[in-house]
Amino acid sequence: MQTKAIFIMNFWISIIFLGLFNITSNLIGQQIQGLVIDSESELPLEFVNIGVVDISQGTITNDSGVYTLECEKLPKDCKIQISMIGYDSQTFNLNELMVDTKAIRLVRKTYELGEATIKWKELMKKVGTTKTSKFAEQCGLGGTGFGRGYELGLLLNLGNTPVKIEDVNLKIHKHSFDTVVFRLHIRSIKNGLPSNELLTENIYLPVTKYRGWQQFDLSGYNILLSDDVVLSIEWIKISNVIEKNLIKMNGSKEATPNILFNLNNKQGTFYTRWGSAAKWKIKENRSPGFYVTVKE
Asked: Residue 214 and residue 209: Cα distance in Å, rounded?
């Protein structure tokens, strides 16, 4: 009898909790929260992109697979895209996420890898922006608004024959953090814009150098690519703001935390977007100091 009473009490506590969750989720001007898990293991997924389609807004999940999305200024009919490298993306109407409290289960992508025999010439070359302008303005990311799907990237012409990506290099002007973590993206191009993700797993790039080139070894990932692609980095995480390294930007008298990269303002194609499902912006004859070393 006592066991039955405890069961009934727990049942009503659960009902009340879910009711409160739904009420909170539907409050105008508030946030919506949700959980993203792996469909097979049912374990939470960290750093999943939650992007608002064609709108410069987004977030990522934390280490518990939970996301919080500001919805105060979002149109009621907007669409939310849940995506992560290595998984099939899902798209929902905003209203669906406000009402449905069930966990979102992402399904792992199946990649069909054809067999190929490549005879390497054992020649190495650099592709991208290897030289930056001495007095050019910098590009970068400011504040502590990491984890919102912000990306910076450039066009790479890899040629018609497949090459192996050996490393990626970033030219850091300076930054205000102990460590800044980026996620690497390499995408195909369609109608002049970044399109399908070509990487099959998440690659994270922890920037620790205060200034100058920092190299990241990618040889173990066996990335084979050809043709034109867009390489970009997504701001995922920071650790420790260093007060003495705060930077005054755009004529401001107040110094704030930033990470800045050197630019070349005479060549290249520069891509940016401010949300994992936002529209891309393009600037010609300008490119950040990013390049890859490839094996031919």
From this structure: 7
State which amino acid sits at residue 244: K
Amino acid at 199: L
State the residue range of the domain holding 163. Answer: 124-295
228 occurs within a structural domain: yes
- Quick one: 101 and 225 in the same domain? no
Structure tokens, 189: 């191009």
Closest CA to 273 of 230, 237, 241, 238: 230
- Which amino acid, 213? W
- Among the listed residues 155, 181, 191, the one whose alpha carbon sits nearest the alpha carbon of residue 269: 155
In a domain, 280, yes or no: yes
How far are the Cα atoms of 11, 46, 102, 279 from residue 18, in angstroms, in the given order?
11, 24, 10, 35
Q: Give yes or no: residues 134 and 99 share one domain.
A: no
The Cα–Cα gap between 247 and 255 comes to: 5
3-state secondary structure of 71: coil
The model's pLDDT over 97-135, given as tens digits with 9 standing for 90+, comes to 988 878 999 999 988 766 666 777 779 999 999 999 877
- Prediction pTM value: 0.88
Same-domain status, 101 and 178: no
Q: Which of 181, 148, 84, 140 is nearest to 270 (CA)?
A: 140
Q: Do residues 100 and 150 share a domain? A: no
**Hunting for tokens 């727990």 — which residue is that?**
10
In sequence order, what are the residues at sequence separation of 6 or more whose Cβ sits closer than 8 angstroms to the Cβ of residue 59? 50, 67, 68, 69, 70, 147, 148, 149
CATH number for 68: 2.60.40.1120
Coil/strand/helix, residue 83? strand
The residue among 100, 60, 54, 47 whose CA lies nearest residue 75 is 54
Where does residue 16 rank: exposed (0-12), middle (13-18), buried (19+ CB within 10 A)? exposed
29-72 residue pLDDT tens: 588 999 999 999 999 999 999 999 999 999 999 999 999 999 98
Contact 215, 152 (CB under 8 A): no
